[in-house]
Amino acid sequence: MTIHDPKLTFRTWLHLASFQTVRFAQNYVRQKLAYDFRYELQLNMAVDDFAEGAFELYPEDDDRVVQCYSPEEVIDELVRDDRIPVWIDISAFKHARDFTVLRLICAGRFTDDVGELYYYARGTGCFGIKSPNLPPGWREGQKFKIEKA
Fold first, then answer.
1. Rg of the Cα trace of the chain?
2. Which of 44, 73, 110, 137 could be joined to 68 by an S-S link, Cβ 3.0–4.6 Å?
3. Distance CA 32, CA 95 (A)
4. Domain presence at residue 94
5. What pLDDT, in 10s, does the model give residues 42-86?
6. Does residue 144 fall inside a structural domain?
7. How far is residue 27's CA from residue 25's CA, in Å, rounded to a whole number?
8. Domain membership of residue 20 as a residue range
């Protein structure tokens, strides 16, 4: 099934995933995280040599990092020719008093088929909500600080 109105759909998933990520991260971090977001995109973070079929690849994105200061910038970067990455792992990365920086680690395969999206059945489209990077020696239930932005 083709993604209907890819930019609007992606915006909805990004909004939902951003809020869920901060709520989830609060189980792990000591700081109170803000619900105003900035984003760090890490592009083409998968090995896509095997990609076949309906996927579009952008090899020029290999290991490229992009700072985005609004959801619109993220949308402009990640919705291409009405296609989106098949998966994006999203996590709280850094914090400031007024905003939280979310890291988006992105697949390099882009699709317009919801059947190809890794997290679609979970209701988050292409977004997989992950914990912040756990520090060495971390134990279940232990809260830690994340880096300041």
1. 15
2. 73
3. 9
4. yes
5. 998 876 656 566 688 888 898 899 999 999 999 999 999 999 999
6. no
7. 5
8. 6-133
| Burial class (CB within 10 angstroms; exposed 0-12, middle 13-18, buried 19+) of 56 | middle
- State both tokens at 110: 């882009």
Q: Which two tokens stand for residue 44?
A: 């083409």
Domain count, the chain: 1
Alpha-carbon distances of 146 from 6, 95, 104, 130, 131, rounded to whole Å: 33, 7, 16, 14, 11
Residue type, 41: L
Q: Helix crossing, 6-25 with 71-78: angle to 10°?
A: 120
Residue burial 59-85, b: 16+ Cβ < 10 Å; e: rest: eebeeeebebeeeeebbebbbeeebbb
pLDDT of residue 56: 83
Name which of 92, 87, 122, 85 is nearest 30 in CA terms.
92
Structural domain contains residue 51: yes
